Amino acid sequence: MIKHFLSLERKQYFRSSYWQKNIALNILLVFFALYMIGIFVFFGVFMYKILTKLFPEQDPFIVANTFIFYWIIAELFIRFFFQKLPVMSAKPLLTLPVKRSSIVNFILGKSALSFFNFLPLFLTVPFSVSLLNNGYSASVVLTWLATMVLITFIANFLNFILEAFSAELDIPFLPLLIVGGGLFALNYFGIISFSEIVSQGILAITENPVYILVLIALLIGLYFYNFKLLKDKLYLDASLQSKVKEVNASDLSWTNRFGDIAPFMQLDLKLIWRNKRTKSMAFLMVIGLLYGLFFYPQPIYRDMTFMFAFIGIFSTGFFLINFGQFIPAWDSGYYKMLMSQNIKYEQYLRSKWILMTMSVVVMFVLGIPYVYFGYKILIAHAAAAVYNIGVNTHVIMWGGSFNRKKIDLDKKAAFNYQGTGAVQWLIGIPLMLVPMAIFGLLDWLIGFEVAVAVLVLAGGLGILLHKPLMKGITQKYLDSKYKMIAAFGKDS
Amino acid sequence: MIYTKDISKSYNGVQVLKIDELEIPKGQSFGLVGNNGAGKTTYFSLLLDLINPSTGTITNNSVVVSQSEDWKPFTSAFIDETFLIGYLTPEEYFYFIGDLRGQNKADVDRLTAKFEDFFNGEIIGKKKYLRDLSKGNQKKAGIVAALIGNPDVIILDEPFANLDPTTQIRLKQILKDLAEKQGVTVLVSSHDLMHVTDVCERIVVLEKGEVVKDLETNPTTLKELEAHFAKSAVTVSEEEE
């Protein structure tokens, strides 16, 4: 049985059109994985030395254990956004003579082989070796290593439980944010020192390995809880099908002032508001808006003028980048219909352009309070906003004409971060780095005023040339029409 | 109205459709039958310029469909549920299509009101998104949406599949009326020989991408079609032996 499952898995992986079309992306992800492994190995090898340098009076082993609480929280966050349980692929198996429990065991067992579960080993194994070299007893080190492996698997299965419960929510990452943030805050402000508790627990285990049974029991408990959750869900009417929701209609007649593109704008707004995937994206705009608060309160960054442009582009263009890079894939589900309808492609694209432009303006206006950190920041943000409207909107729409990947809007948001998360940020880089480089260079060579003027000029030029640019972009879309229809018709 | 000349479509050197000449006059109800893979959907997709022909052209009301988009205002289609926008309610979807076809809300309401019994009270005013409707109800919504804006050419791929018997009978009446009373050119494909002979004045049989029969419908047509498809079933079983 397992043999069959494994061969299905292998075929699903290598035969998906996503794999074949995105070799470059896969290579990039492999590099990213290697990079992460490299960092982990580096820290694993040198952590002992680093800790002795930083905390000369303390035992490095004990210091390392106090970090494990933070590690667990971070791991849960990372897993939540990047690791998913592939429940959907089980649907065709349901009617076959395969026991439900073996399907569930397979899905859960497979998750244990995830990259996320091996990554920590690249840190913990070298660290253990350096502990042994520094005279720690083998039994302590090996127990510690086993404990870390168990913690990894506990995080693995705990994550799926968290996902199962938050998948039904409109903002799936909110519970994790509140719980994770709450624990962190309690710890940070010294109300309850979780890092101390975790550290004490691990030290207790290393002193008396019998306590490791507690972790094993916890792991088994989590596994069976997952087993139960998943087994109940493996019915067509439970998790494999989306829930029916009452319609929330809102009045969008204000878009009528945009004339012939009003129908498309209404469609886009409904698209954003009524699909989980797009809705979480809209909520993420808040993070984009508050992004500057990570930097500006620290005086170091306030002196780095080139950062102003970067933060300005990012915070005013957050929606633009996240929404824009998936044009026209948002409409992939019904692209054939649009193409057989009496629409002018230019109107279709202009509606998206206006939506992105409005978002930039709104984000800029909401970001005006940043003036508190200095008037230069506001000026730089304004220039960045103009650049976003004039240049980045057109660039990202032009890039969209190369879009060949279908987006399944009906899928739960929780199953949808995978595959897009890393890509999303990679595509964003050129859009943000180019203006940042221009701005930074001019600011350094000539001065702040010139740098601002050049960004505004570039943006202004883009706005002036909007009509011809759109014409070119529209032509690009029309040229790849058949390819897009064919690609959007395929399941990834 | 629709003139097909020397059209062919190949994928990686395998020909899936080849029609030398086919003319469909205005106001004709035209039926396309054939087994799976015969090329019915390919032909409709070419007609809607959703795929690029390998050779040849299709002319719709003297517009070459792969060269100009001017055929779109008077042509409408429902091929499959990917023509629906899942996150809209049926009403919103109808209004959206109406907007694209220059019809205001009142026009659309007037049209959909005529289909009240076709909808059987399960489509309008239910506060449900299209993605949450059953397959049959999705199909009903898609078919009616294809009628919005008084098109001259209506293309429906497998309109009878997934519908309940009552609705099938109502749909047949609707399609007949369109061709006979309003002069609309109706193109349907179907696997159900009985339905297609009931509705269509003319039936073309496709086999492996080529036209093998072109019949004016008369009382014996159904028998003839059944004989044709039974024959190919017999030849297949003989080959297997």
Overview of the molecule:
- Chain B: Residues 2-233 form the ABC transporter domain.
- Chain B: It comes from Winogradskyella wandonensis.
- Chain B: Keywords: ATP-binding, Nucleotide-binding, Transport.
- The complex is a heterodimer of chains A (492) and B (241).
- Chain A has 492 residues and is an all-alpha fold.
- Chain A has 2 domains: 2-233, no CATH class; 253-489, no CATH class.
- Chain A contains 24 helices and no strands.
- In chain A, helix 5 runs antiparallel to helix 10 and helix 16 (305-316) packs across helix 17 (318-324).
- The model of chain A is unreliable at 412-419 (pLDDT under 50).
- Chain B is an alpha/beta fold and 241 residues long.
- In chain B, 37% of the residues lie in helices and 26% in strands.
- In chain B, helix 2 packs across helix 3.
- The longest helix of chain B has 20 residues, at 221-240.
- The chains are: A mainly alpha (492), B alpha/beta (241).
- The interface between A and B is medium-sized, with 30 and 30 residues.
Q: From the 3D coordinates, which CATH architecture of chain B would you assign? A: 3-Layer(aba) Sandwich
The overall average pLDDT of chain B, rounded, is 88
Q: What Rg of chain B is obtained from the alpha carbons, in whole angstroms?
A: 18 Å
Total count of helical runs of at least 4 residues of chain B = 8
What is the H/E order of chain B? Answer: EEEHEEEHHHHEHEHEEH
Short description:
Chain A is mainly alpha-helical and 492 residues long. Chain A has 24 helices and no strands.
Keywords:
heterodimer; A: 492 residues; mainly alpha; 2 domains; 24 helices; 72% helix; 0% strand; globular; B: 241 residues; alpha/beta; Rossmann fold; six-stranded mixed sheet; four-stranded antiparallel sheet; 8 helices; 37% helix; 26% strand; transport (chain B); ATP-binding (chain B); AAA+_ATPase (chain B)
